[in-house]
Amino acid sequence: MFSHPCTIAAALFTAGMLAYAPAHAGHGKASASLSNIQFELIDLDLTDNITPSITFSRKSASESVLIRSGSDNAQGSSSGFKSISRSVPDATVSAGATPTSLQVGAQADVVEANLNATATASQTMSFVLSPSTRLSFSAQADTVLENEGIMLAWSSATLGASMDMLINGVFGNETVSMTLRNTKGERSRFLFGSVDTGASIGRGSLTASTTARFINALSMAPLASPVPEPASYAMLAAGLLVIGAARGKARKA
Which residues form the Ice-binding protein C-terminal domain (predicted)? Predict the structure, then answer.
């Protein structure tokens, strides 16, 4: 029964259609935020008659977004505590900053073969810290990552500080950094750190940043898949039908 030409043609046609049909529709959603960014001063020497103090010489923030989805692209940036967003068909990115929070997001409803969706928001506060003082800083970090069909995707939130000071006549540096990075699902963490001055003042900066990003590129496609795709099964089935038809003819002959 496998020898009828119409049966063979129909099988090959069906296999060809399955081979060109996508295995699934891809999409993605990523977000990251830092909220309730705050700091506290602690007196490390109660006998020196120095009141703990901090002076901010500069506060700055920046936001940046970029989308390249297929042949569509859009980008933008801003400085200061602002919000910005850009959209193309089937994709959106956004970023925003306030003195006590940062938030970014990226969403792709349809995954193109070439996709780059990136959103970043950051802030820096330069300071001068009094002697014998501990500067403690903290923030709540939250990240979300949903990924279907995107090769690289992540969201992250970072909080840190760097300070220069004079220690026994020698300049030194203290750097603290904490990052919550997410590649799947929802993750939250309370970020906390501190830097201390000695007998002299300290000069440094508090930094915070958030990033959400999708990357999809034809050049990143794997050369071989360890698990056969539906198209591979379809072509295999078609081949078996052809072999069965040939054997049927041989038996009749």
Answer: 226-247
Place of tokens 């089937």: 90
| The model's pTM | 0.76
**Can you say whether residue 70 is alpha, beta or left, with left for phi > 0 and alpha for psi between -120 and 50 degrees?**
left
CB 207 within 8 A of CB 179: no
Phi, psi of 122 (to 5 degrees): -150, 160
Q: How far apart are CA 107 and CA 111, in angstroms?
A: 10
Distance CA 203, CA 201 (A): 7
Classify strands 27-43 and 133-148 as parallel, antiparallel or unpaired.
Answer: antiparallel
Which range has the worst mean pLDDT, 17-21, 72-76, 100-104, 232-236? 17-21
* CA gap 69, 4 in Å, rounded: 47
Quick check: 146 and 31 in contact, CB under 8 A?
no
What is the spatial distance between Cα 149 and Cα 118, in angstroms, rounded to a whole number? 17
Q: Is the pLDDT of residue 145 over 70?
A: yes
Q: Count CA atoms closer than 13 A to 27's CA, side-chain side.
A: 8
